[in-house]
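Review session, final week

We close the course with one last complete record, chosen because it touches almost every idea we covered. It is tetrahydrofolate synthase, a protein from Paenibacillus aceris with 459 residues. Go through it on your own first, then we will talk.
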Amino acid sequence: MNEIKDSHPAAAFQSAQEAIAWIVGRMEKLGIKPGLQRMQMLMEKLGHPERRLKFIHVAGTNGKGSTCAYLSSVLRACGYDVGTFTSPYLEKYTNRIQVNGADIPDDDLLRLVNDMKPVIDEIAETELGSPTMFEISTALAIMYFGKVAYPDYVVWETGLGGRLDSTNIVNPVVTVITNVGHDHMDILGDTIEKVAAEKAGIIKAGVPVITAAQPHEGWSVIEQTARAKKATLYTLGDQFDYANVTSELDLQTFDFKGPFRPIPGVPISLNGEHQLKNAAVAVMTLEVLRQYYACIVDDEDLYKGLKETRWPGRLEMISNEPRILLDGAHNPEGAATLAAALQTVYSYRKLNLMMGMLSTKNHTGYLRHILPLVDTLILTEPDFHKKGDATMLAELARELLHDMNRQVDIVVEPDWKRALEILTSRTEQDDLAVVSGTLYLISDVRSWITYQTDSEKGW
């Protein structure tokens, strides 16, 4: 096995940027190595800081980020200090580790990475090999929350799958599996049942589980795992449900029906039918915290927290002249959600869509949902090492359009900045421009439009 030889002596990082470069540099060299043994050894050598924290562990194919955003916003509105660990980040590395919406400070990051480095080097010398970028990032979050910030709750998003994901080192107070769909099947398994089994791997003995997974999404696998672990399962459409009351741009309301009480007229500002579902999952999770763990959630704070939730890069109108909508849909289920929103929430004369993908995704399923709606399709490539080839995407789109008997103007421009210029120039006053696909592309476009700078995006 080729091990990374670190050029830095122990505790040698002089700045946060240097420490981050060392962590992020491991992605190219080591990639993703599923398994928990390195994390177990890391936590043991660091004195198990994860045991001091109350985690809300969130897995799922789509909706994880939005659900985490709802939970964090409401708990903060209730007066709790909330840590969040999310991925991939949209603008810079420190976005992934936050307390009350503020990134981990550079000086804390530098000190903690210098503290951890000798332990990481020690593990690298064992037969387990070097901890990966994601493992070190996960350990850094735990160290920050457990030894520096001490938040009341940590909203803890899985990176990939669940069972072998480095976040699965924790024992949470509640577990959430938003849904199960076609994503990362090259790593998690080639059937929905196999993917569901990986997600269900975060279910712990006796810890309640909330899910919006449906029968065709491998729900039975989640149900069997919960039963085997004696974990109470709350399923959308069974133990809890919601009914849409009003729906307009930037404001939706729904009535929540749960096992403990009904909650009428719940407001959210995020757009799309799918956000009602994500919000209902978050409300059920908060109800479980209220019921089992004496978490104080007043209705006033619940409504305020949900209404104030923002989630960048998901149906986010980033520009009004021209109208440019960002949405990180990158798999068939995400595309179906985006397509539904484009047909119900937004009005436009022409729809111009720019997309860039990673090479590992199910592009056929994605395009089948999107192609019937678009007038112009601009295919580009994210600035990332696993990027999907724009020319190959164009060939696939033409085949599908031929089968659909549809004519769409297709533009291939691998340089995403030039593609964005084409998109902007073609979008007139009554038109809508959409940038969709991998979050690696969304983060670049978002940073460029907002700040005219490149992002530091990544896992």
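Two points worth writing down before the exam:
The radius of gyration is 22 Å.
The first helix runs from residue 16 to 30.
Good luck, everyone.
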